Amino acid sequence: MEEHQGPVVSSGLIYGLDDRPPLRETLFAALQHLLAIFVAIITPPLIISGALKLDLETTGYLVSMALFASGISTFIQCRRIGFIGCGLLCIQGTSFSFIGPIIAAGLTGGLSAIFGACMAAASVEMFISRLLKYTRRIITPLVSGIVVTLIGMSLIRVGITACGGGAAAQADGTFGSLRHVGLAGLVLVLIIFFNRSSNRYLRMSSIVIGLAIGYIVAWCLGMVDFASIPDYGGLNVPMPFRYGLSFDISSIIALALIYLITAIEAYGDITANSLISGEPVEGEKFVRRASGGIFADGFNSMIAACLNSFPNSIFAQNNGMIQLTGVASRYVGYYIAAMLIILGLFPAVGLVFSLMPEPVLGGATLLMFGTVAAAGIRIIASQDIDRKATLVVALSFSFGLSVELVPDILCQLPETLRTIFSSGITTGGLTAILANLLIRIKN
Q1: What are the tens digits of pLDDT across the range 361-413?
Q2: What are residue 8's DSSP bridge partners?
Q3: Distance of CA 150 to the CA centre of its chain
Q4: What angle do CA 41, 274, 85 make, to 5 degrees?
Q5: Dist. CA 422–CA 409, nearest whole Å
Q6: Partners of 13 in the beta sheet?
Q7: Is the dihedral of CA 148, 152, 153, 154 positive or negative?
Q8: What is d(CA 209, CA 188) in angstroms, rounded to the nearest whole number?
């Protein structure tokens, strides 16, 4: 391992983008990044599996493949292979934004429909990366803020259902019991407690600590049965297209809209990462980097679908980690990628998390989804909200939340349209784009 070639004083970093820190410091920085992203990567497959009532083996495999696919995606982003990737310390993981449409697709056509739609719709983000300057005029910060807020608001229902015990508790009549709600509340309180700590390591680990304590308490209450899993050994060998592929046009359209928004979010994350890493945020070099990063976002999601995993996106929280550690070296990303791939190969990791009781997961995700909604509100608030912008926001939330709160309003529509608009994210997002174009057209 080569030694670091000198600190980057101008940007306040200890190690710059192309520096190679000593092995000990590289591993320490990689572990901190891993701690910040691990729960976020495994949560979407756990939520989707719970909503689709998948068995423990399938759930464990999906969790493992989420880690494995995130490792490959992270390596491509950091390494930049040809024109694919941004070449920054940019971490990718399973995205929360797609959960709603994915569950809708799964309820309609199963896992094959999910992976088919994820693969087909990913081409939208790859196409957008080539037309970046034009799409940013359509998907404005106001539109992005509305969609991100709707994503958070829509997912809160998923989180609170998990807090009550999930689909299994609804079936056996124990939904909302004191044991379920109390366990979810314990996890939520623990996360808030550790997140408010002045110790940065406790703050970074707050979600992991909350889930771990909640898991232990659930085990003590007899809610975790390790005997239900016969074997923890062996390796999880990735099997492309294990669950098959099928293509449903309504599911593809619903996911395509999220890919559209994800492309704009990826642009913002790459800009922030470049700034923190002391790299240019304008000019030809930056445009190539942003375009390559957004293309990789879609390309990696396509690879993830081949590997039986869900769409990947750039994780914004790692930008804060770069500031915290002062390490922007993309070589650290190689170690993070290797750790994720290794974790994904061992079935024990996925199986242990597949046994996590839904109230434990719900206590954490309820807060995480609320944070997503709050982030969207911050984006909206950062804009000039005049009379026309107010109309755009009002229309988008009205249409988006109406189909979430009263889904029967769509019952007379043809099945294809019903599937497309059943997601409040899709309905509100399309409304935001059209309203922004029509109402603010003179601007």
Answers
A1: 888 888 878 877 887 888 888 888 889 999 999 999 999 999 988 988 988 88
A2: 13
A3: 15
A4: 60
A5: 9
A6: 8
A7: positive
A8: 11
